[in-house]
Design brief:
Layout lengths: L1 E6 L2 E6 L20 E5 L15 E5 L5 E4 L9 E4 L1 H20 L1 H41 L15 H12 L1 H7 L2 H5 L14 H16 L1 H20 L11 H4 L6 H36 L7 H25 L1 H26 L2 H19 L29 H4 L1 H10 L1 H11 L5 H45 L15 E2 L6 E5 L2 E5 L9 E2 L6 H7 L13 H31 L8 H22 L1 H38 L25 H6 L6 H5 L7 H12 L1 H12 L6 H24 L5 H27 L6 H10 L1 H21 L1
Antiparallel strand pairs: 1-2, 2-5, 3-4, 5-6, 7-10, 8-9
C-alpha cells in the first residue's frame, strides 16, 4: 500500500511491506543496514588455513516499513524509516496506560497493583525457577560454545574492555546501586524467613541481609539480560538478522518472524522498555531531589514545589539524554558511561578508606563466600512456600516470614529484571560486536556479580555497621541516662541519627564494667532509619567534627553522588531511546536523529505527566505494568535459550554459513501459529500483503484451515478418527481407533461440563483439569506418531503444549500433513 501527500516542501511516502525494499545502494563491508539478511562470499583460502566467516552480501527481508521524506532543513538523510505497526502498538499501549494512570492514579495503582500481586501469587514458582535455569544455561553455553564470536571471525571488539563494561553496567543496574546501596541490606534485617527473632543471632541475620542483597543483584539480575543479548548479537552480527527482539526467535517462527508475530513482539518490547525507563526516571528523580534538599539547594514548602522540582529535573535529564543519543553510541553514551562509572569508583574508594577498612574487607570476603554457598543453589530455588500461607491457610504460629515479603522483594526483582531484558539485553547485543560468547558472559554476567558484591560490601557494610552502632548508642543511653534518645542528634529532620561520643564511655551493665570505645573518630552521626535518605546518611556520617567548625565531607560526597546518579540516569535514558528506536525501525542502526529525539522526549513526557497527575501512585502503577508484562517475556526467554542453542550448533557445524536454516523447511505443512492466524497478517497489512508471504501461503487461511479450526474446536473427535484412519491404512486396528475416539469424545465433553459445574462447586474444576490433561496426552501421543512417521523435527514437550492449549490447530495441522504426504505419494 502506497500513499503520497504533498505539503509544500514536506513529502510523505508511506510504504507497507515493499516487495523490493528500498532502492539499491552501495554498502560498505559490515555496514549496518536495516532489515537485511546476508550471505557468505567464499574467499580462496590456503590449504591449511582454517575456515572463517568472512565477507557478507545483503538481501531484503519482507518487513513492514514506512518512509517519510523530510524537507532539506532537517539535515541528515532526510528520511524517517520505521515500522508503523510496531511503533503504533508501542505508542498506543504506552500512552493509553499512561492516560489511565494520569486520570485515575489511585484506581490505576490499585487495579494494576492487584494484577501484579496476582502474577506474583500464581507465578512465583516460574519467576524463581527461571533465573537459575538461565544461569546454568549460560555457564553451559560458555563451556560448550564459548569460542563462537558475535560477528565475523576476524572482527575485533567494537569497544575497549573498560568502555564495554562501563556501558553495560550503566544501562543495567547503575542507578539502582545508588538507590539501594545502603537501604536494601537494612531492609533485609527483618520480615523475611531468616530474620525471625529468637531463632538466629543478629550477626547471622545481618550477614544474611547482605547476602540476600547480593542474590537479588547478582546472577539472578543479569541472566535475562545476557540471554537476550547473546541471542540478538548472534542473530544480527553473525547471521545478518535485524537488531530486534523478534530476530531472537527466528529459529522457531522462521519467516513468520517478519510478519505480524514479529511486529507484536517488538511493539510489546517497546512498551516494557519505555515503561521501565519512565518509572525509573521518575522514582530516581525523587532521590536526586532528596539529596539536593539535604544539601540545602532546594527548599520545597509544599507538594506543588516538590512537583515542580521533579518536573524540572526530569527535563534537564531528558535534554542531556537527547543530546547524548543524537551524538551517537561512540560519543555521548560511551563518554557518559565512563564518566558515571569513574565517579562511582571515586565514591567507593573514599568510603572504603574513611570507614573501618579492615571490617569492610571482612564483609566483602564473607559476602562472596556466603553467596557461593547459598546464592547459587539454595536461594535461587527458594519460593518461601510456607511463609506465603496466610492465617487460616496453615500459617506457622511464629517464626514465619511476612506474607508480603517474597512479592515485595524477590519476586519483584525477578520480574523487574525480566521486564528489562528487552532494553538491557538489546543494548548488550548492540555493544558486543566482535566479542565471543565467553567474553560476553564474563563481562556481562560474572563481572557484574563481583562488582555488586564489592559495592554492597562497602556501602551496605558501612550502613549496616552504623545502624548497629546507632542501636548500641540507644542501649547506652538507656543504661546511663534511662533515655534511649540521649545521644540523638540535634540536627533538624534526622530523628533516627545518633551522635557518637568522641571519647571512651565507661559504664556498668549487670555488675560488669564495660567500655564504649570509639575506634573510628570523626564518623558521626550514625543512623538506623531506612529509606531514600539512607544513602545520604552514610555519606554525611563522615563529618570529622572539630573546634574549627569544619563541616565534614558529607556535602562533597553527596554532591558527587547526585552528579553520578544524574549521569547514570542520562545513560539509562539515552540507551533506552537507542534501543527503542532500533525496535521501532526494524533494527536500523543508522537513521534520522529525529526518531531518537522522539523516543527520548516520549520518555520524559510520560514520566512528567505521571508525576504531575498522580505522583508516586501513577509511577508505581506504570511500574506494575512492567512487572505484569515480564510474565510472557519469562516464557519467551526459555524459547530464546533454545534459539541460541540452534544458532550456536549451526555455527559449529557450518562455520562458513551465514544463513540460518529455515525451521519449517522439513517441518509441518502448516505451523501451529499459521492457518487461521494468518488472518492477522491480512488485517495488519490492510489486505496488501507482501508478495513473498503470499507465495508461501502466509497471507490468509485457506477455506479448510478456517472452517477446520472451528470444526476441530467443537467436534475434535471427527478429525481424530480421520487421523487414526489415515495412519491405519490397512485397517488392522479398527477396534482401537474407535475405542480411543470414543474415549476422547466422552472426556472432551466431560471436561467442558465439569468446568461449567465448578461455578457451583469448585471441586469439579480439579476433575475438569484431569479430564482435559487426559485428552491432551491422547493427542500428544498421536501427534508424536505423525511426527515420527514423516521425520518431522520436534520433541514431546512441544507436542504436549500444542495438543493441550491449541488442540484445534494441532488437529488441523495433522490432517493437512497427512493430506500433503498422500499427494506426494500420488505424484511419486
Amino acid at each position: 500500500l502506497s500513499l503520497s501527500f504533498s505539503f509544500s516542501t514536506l513529502k510523505i511516502r508511506a510504504t507497507m511491506d515493499p516487495e523490493n525494499g528500498v532502492p539499491e545502494r552501495t554498502q560498505d563491508l559490515y555496514h549496518d543496514a536495516p532489515g537485511k539478511i546476508t550471505e557468505v562470499q567464499d574467499l580462496p583460502m590456503g590449504k591449511d588455513e582454517p575456515e572463517k566467516l568472512t565477507e557478507v552480501k545483503e538481501k531484503n527481508l519482507p518487513m513492514r516499513e514506512t518512509y517519510i521524506q523530510l524537507p532539506a532543513f532537517c539535515g541528515g538523510n532526510r528520511e524517517l524509516r520505521f515500522n508503523i505497526l510496531t511503533s503504533g502498538i508501542g505508542i498506543f499501549l504506552l500512552w493509553g496506560l499512561s492516560a489511565y494512570c494520569m486520570t485515575n492514579p489511585e484506581e490505576a495503582n490499585e487495579t494494576l497493583g492487584s494484577w501484579k500481586s496476582a502474577v506474583s501469587k500464581h507465578f512465583t514458582w516460574l519467576y524463581i525457577v527461571a533465573n537459575p535455569a538461565y544461569t546454568f544455561f549460560l555457564f553451559w553455553l560458555m563451556y560448550r560454545y564459548g569460542d563462537i564470536k558475535l560477528g565475523a571471525d576476524h572482527e575485533k571488539p567494537e569497544f575497549s574492555d573498560v568502555s564495554y563494561f562501563a556501558m553495560i553496567f550503566s544501562a543495567g543496574v547503575a542507578v539502582g546501586l545508588f538507590f539501594y546501596g545502603v537501604s536494601e541490606p537494612l531492609y533485609h534485617r527483618s520480615s523475611h524467613w531468616y530474620a525471625a527473632p529468637g531463632y538466629r543471632s543478629q550477626d547471622e541475620i545481618d550477614n544474611w541481609a547482605l547476602m540476600l542483597t547480593a542474590y537479588h543483584w547478582g546472577f539472578a539480575g543479569w541472566s535475562p539480560y545476557v540471554v537476550m543479548g547473546i541471542a540478538a548479537g548472534l542473530g544480527n552480527y553473525r547471521y545478518g538478522l535485524p537488531m530486534t527482539v523478534r530476530s531472537t526467535l527466528y529459529p522457531f517462527f522462521g519467516d513468520y518472524t517478519w510478519g505480524w508475530i514479529g511486529d507484536l513482539i517488538d511493539g510489546f518490547s517497546i512498551v516494557t522498555t519505555v515503561a521501565g525507563i519512565c518509572t525509573s526516571l521518575g522514582l530516581g528523580v525523587m532521590q536526586i531531589i532528596t539529596g539536593l534538599k539535604r544539601l540545602g539547594l532546594i527548599v520545597a514548602e509544599d507538594d506543588a514545589d516538590m512537583t515542580n522540582a521533579y518536573v524540572l529535573t526530569i527535563w534537564i535529564i531528558t535534554l542531556i539524554a537527547t543530546a547524548s543519543v543524537v551524538s551517537g553510541l561512540h560519543v555521548g553514551i560511551q563518554f557518559l558511561s565512563k564518566l558515571g562509572f569513574g565517579i562511582g569508583m571515586v565514591l567507593l574508594v573514599l568510603v572504603f578508606c574513611m570507614e573501618k577498612t579492615y571490617y569492610l574487607l571482612n564483609v566483602i570476603i564473607q559476602m562472596l563466600g556466603t553467596y557461593l554457598q547459598y546464592g547459587v543453589f539454595l536461594l535461587p530455588f527458594w519460593t518461601d512456600a510456607f511463609g506465603g500461607l496466610k492465617d487460616g491457610e496453615g500459617r506457622a504460629p511464629e517464626g514465619a516470614a511476612e506474607t508480603w515479603w517474597m512479592d515485595g522483594w524477590t519476586v519483584f526483582y525477578m520480574a523487574w529484571w525480566t521486564a528489562w531484558a528487552c532494553f538491557v539485553g538489546m543494548f548488550v547485543a548492540r555493544v558486543s560486536r566482535g566479542r565471543t560468547i565467553r567474553e560476553v558472559v564474563m563481562y556481562c554476567f560474572i563481572a557484574p556479580l563481583l562488582f555488586s558484591i564489592l559495592w554492597f560490601g562497602v556501602f551496605g557494610g558501612a550502613g549496616m555497621r552504623q545502624a548497629r552502632q546507632a542501636e548500641e548508642l540507644q542501649a547506652l543511653g538507656l543504661n546511663l541516662h534511662n533515655d534511649t534518645k540521649f545521644y540523638l542528634t540535634q540536627e533538624i529532620g534526622r530523628n533516627s541519627c545518633y551522635d557518637v561520643p568522641q571519647q571512651d564511655v565507661f559504664y556498668t551493665l549487670n555488675g560488669v564494667n564495660k567500655t564504649f570505645a570509639n575506634t573510628l573518630l570523626g564518623v558521626t552521626p550514625v543512623c538506623d532509619d531506612i529509606g531514600d535518605s539512607s544513602w545520604f546518611n552514610v555519606l554525611y556520617s563522615f563529618s570529622y567534627p572539630s573546634a574549627s567548625g569544619f563541616g565534614g565531607f558529607g556535602s562533597f560526597l553527596s554532591g558527587l553522588s547526585i552528579l553520578a546518579i544524574t549521569v547514570y540516569f542520562v545513560t539509562s535514558s539515552d540507551s533506552g531511546s537507542l534501543v527503542v528506536d532500533h525496535l521501532a525501525s526494524n533494527g536500523q542502526k543508522e537513521h534520522h536523529w529525529l526518531q531518537r529525539v522522539f523516543w527520548a522526549f516520549t520518555e520524559g513526557a510520560v514520566a512528567t505527566a505521571l508525576l504531575m497527575a498522580g505522583g508516586t501512585q501513577g509511577l508505581k502503577a506504570l511500574q506494575a505494568v512492567s512487572i505484569v508484562f515480564g510474565l510472557p517475556l519469562c516464557a519467551l526467554l526459555f524459547l530464546i535459550c533454545g534459539s541460541i542453542t540452534t544458532m550456536c550448533r549451526h555455527a559449529k557445524e557450518n562455520k562458513l554459513s551465514q544463513d540460518l536454516p529455515d525451521p519449517h523447511a522439513h517441518g509441518w505443512t502448516m505451523p501451529i501459529f499459521g492457518g487461521i492466524f494468518n488472518i492477522f497478517e491480512y488485517v495488519a497489512s490492510l489486505s496488501c500483503v507482501h508478495q513473498d508471504r503470499v507465495n508461501k501461503g502466509m497471507h490468509l487461511p485457506t477455506p479448510f484451515q478456517f472452517a477446520g479450526f472451528f470444526m476441530a474446536l467443537f467436534f475434535p473427535f471427527l478429525y481424530l478418527y480421520q487421523i487414526y484412519s489415515s495412519l491405519d491404512v490397512k485397517n488392522v486396528r479398527s477396534g482401537s481407533k474407535i475405542l480411543f475416539t470414543l474415549i476422547y469424545t466422552l472426556i472432551h465433553f466431560g471436561w467442558i461440563i465439569l468446568f461449567g459445574l465448578s461455578a457451583i462447586n469448585f471441586g469439579f474444576a480439579a476433575f475438569g483439569w484431569v479430564a482435559f490433561l487426559i485428552n491432551a496426552c491422547i493427542l500428544t501421543s498421536l501427534r508424536r506418531n505423525v511426527r515420527e512417521k514423516f521425520s518431522i523435527p520436534g520433541n514431546i514437550v512441544g507436542d504436549f503444549f500444542a495438543s493441550s492449549f491449541s488442540y484445534p490447530q494441532t488437529l488441523v495441522q495433522m490432517i493437512l500433513q497427512l493430506e500433503n504426504e498422500k499427494e506426494k505419494d500420488v505424484l511419486t
